Amino acid sequence: MDETTTKLAEQLKRNPALLHALMQSRDGQSLMQLLTQGDQGAGLQRAVQAAVRGNTGEMVQMMNRIMESPDGAALIQRINQAVQQK
């Protein structure tokens, strides 16, 4: 995960209302689709459970895979811009 994405994650962690608004947005829904595709969310659930225990490696890998595609990178950029405006 790059520095921008790390900052975005920290902002969302500190502001649950902002996270909720993001998840209700079209881009938030698109992100959830990317994070859950292929295994109906099992991988995301494992990554979240690991992150709660302090191991963010799986979540970082998921985000890196999303950002490898031009569409995924653009999605993360739009989300970051929306969060910066709040």
In words, what does this structure look like?
- With 86 residues, the chain is mostly helical.
- It is built from six helices and no strands.
- The chain has helices at residues 3-14, 16-24, 26-36, 42-52, 57-68, 70-85.
- It is globular, with a radius of gyration of 12 Å.
Give a short summary of the structure.
With 86 residues, this protein is mainly alpha-helical. The protein contains six helices and no strands.
**Major β-sheet profile:** none
Supply Rg.
Answer: 12 Å
Considering DSSP H and I runs of 4 or more, what fraction of the residues is helical? over 70%
The 3D shape can be described as: globular
Number of strands: 0
| Mean pLDDT rating | 88
Unreliable residue runs: none
- Work out the strand percent: under 5%
- SSE order in H/E notation? HHHHHH
Structural class designation:
mainly alpha
Name its key features.
single chain; mainly alpha; 0% strand; globular
Q: How would the blueprint of this fold be written?
A:
Blueprint: H1 3-14, H2 16-24, H3 26-36, H4 42-52, H5 57-68, H6 70-85
